[in-house]
Description:
This protein has a single domain, classed as Gcn5-related N-acetyltransferase (GNAT) (Aminopeptidase, 3-Layer(aba) Sandwich). The chain is built from five helices and six strands; from the N terminus they run E-E-H-H-H-E-E-E-H-E-H. The chain has helices at residues 17-31, 34-38, 44-52, 102-116, 131-140; strands spanning 2-3, 8-11, 56-63, 66-77, 84-93, 119-124. It has a six-stranded mixed sheet with strand order 1-2-3-4-5-6, with helices on both faces. Strand 4 (66-77) and strand 5 (84-93) form a beta hairpin. The chain is globular, with a radius of gyration of 15 Å. The relative contact order is 0.16. The mean pLDDT is 89.
Amino acid sequence: MATSGSFEVRSLGPGDVALMRELLGCFADAFGEPETYCGAQPSSDYLAGLLTSECFVAIAALKVGRVVGGLAAYELRKFEQARSEFYIYDLAVSTEHRRQGIATALIGELKLVAKRRGAWVIFVQADLVDAPAVALYTKLGAREDVLQFDIPLD
């Protein structure tokens, strides 16, 4: 758990289902996708199980006990070496709380988790048109230009 003068950043565990639901709401607002994040939320048992999982990490930024940002990441255990990588699936900070170091602190907390678990890298994708995300990730890491392909399951 990391703290700043105005916010706290901490990993969520199985007892934090209510905070995970708040984080889903934060993602919904930040990404403008309420149906995706709040339209069909899983049961509390499902979320508690996810928060217990060795392959999933949720980290929340809190101000006065309320979620103002967070990230969801997955640990990908490698097969070619005994190590793992972490993929930041979602990262968001509420509009009114941006430019305060929250996103950087969230990634800093994930770095601690990843190091404890023996990871060698954290990676994240950003849309080219999302200038704030590109600037943040450029500040924190090395840019690689790659293509992503979504393969339908039909």
